[in-house]
Amino acid sequence: VQLVESGGGLVQAGGSLRLSCAASGGTFTNYAMGWFRQGPGKEREFAAVISRSGSSTYYTDSVKGRFTISRDNAKNTVLLQMNNLKPEDTAVYYCAAGRFTRPTMESVIPQQYDYWGQGTQVTVSS
Question: For 33-89, how does the pLDDT look when each residue is reduced to its tens digit (9 = 90+)?
């Protein structure tokens, strides 16, 4: 499975961005899809995950109410709508695919995912 992220960029605090991840080379609905991020000098951290069907989602506390993950199984695409962005959201954002069906507590662990994109940079200026 190949994953390609797009949509990153530079935005002022309070602004919005929408990240997109296009999947190819596999059966998209066999995978739950997640977004992780890695800020400067930080470890990769979980942001959001969506189930195979799209009916179930889970977010880390720091993005709840601001970020929305969604997927279009007809287009093999997963989106991350990011609103009210903060400087601390600055990071490289990675899309990931995991073979589990729906989000669980383990979904926040990078090792639960089998495929990763190369990332897209998001920079939020204050």
Answer: 999 999 999 999 999 999 999 999 999 999 999 999 999 999 999 999 999 999 999
Nearest-angstrom CA–CA distance, 6 and 20: 5
Contact 124, 85 (CB under 8 A): yes
16-29 CB burial, b ≥16 within 10 A, e <16: ebebbbbbeeeebe
DSSP 51: -
Strand ranges, E, within 39-76:
45-50, 57-59, 67-72
At 25, the pLDDT band (50, 70, 90 cuts) reads very high
Rounded CA separation 13/8 (Å):
14
